[in-house]
Amino acid sequence: MDGLGQFIPLILIFAIMWFLLIRPQQKKIKEHKAMVDAVRKGDQVITQGGLIGKITRVKDADEVEVEIATGVKVRLVRSTIAQVLSKTEPADS
């Protein structure tokens, strides 16, 4: 019984850390992945490097092409998109 009593504070500390730090971080990662997976042509985005541009082409699952100035296009890894400023409306089918 004494051995178990010594581990109760450690278990409580881990439980508190789980609910205050680990769970919210996992939720944030899941939301970011959903946002990045939903980007499409015409969306205006901000990259983690601070560039603002418009997606001109979705190349594949990991890469997009972004126009950062008239005639200046760069290729980006999708995961480097930090925020979507404006979404385009889906095309009517």
Question: What does this protein structure show overall?
Answer:
It is built from one helix and five strands, in the order H-E-E-E-E-E. The chain has 93 residues and is an alpha+beta fold. It has one domain (2-86): SH3 type barrels (Roll). Strand 2 and strand 3 form a beta hairpin. The protein starts with a helix and ends in a 7-residue tail after the last strand.
Compact overview of the structure:
By secondary structure, the chain is an alpha+beta fold. The protein has one helix at 2-37, and strands at 44-47, 52-58, 63-69, 72-77, 81-86.
How are the elements arranged and paired?
Blueprint: H1 2-37, E1 44-47, E2 52-58, E3 63-69, E4 72-77, E5 81-86
Antiparallel strand pairs: 1-2, 1-5, 2-3, 3-4
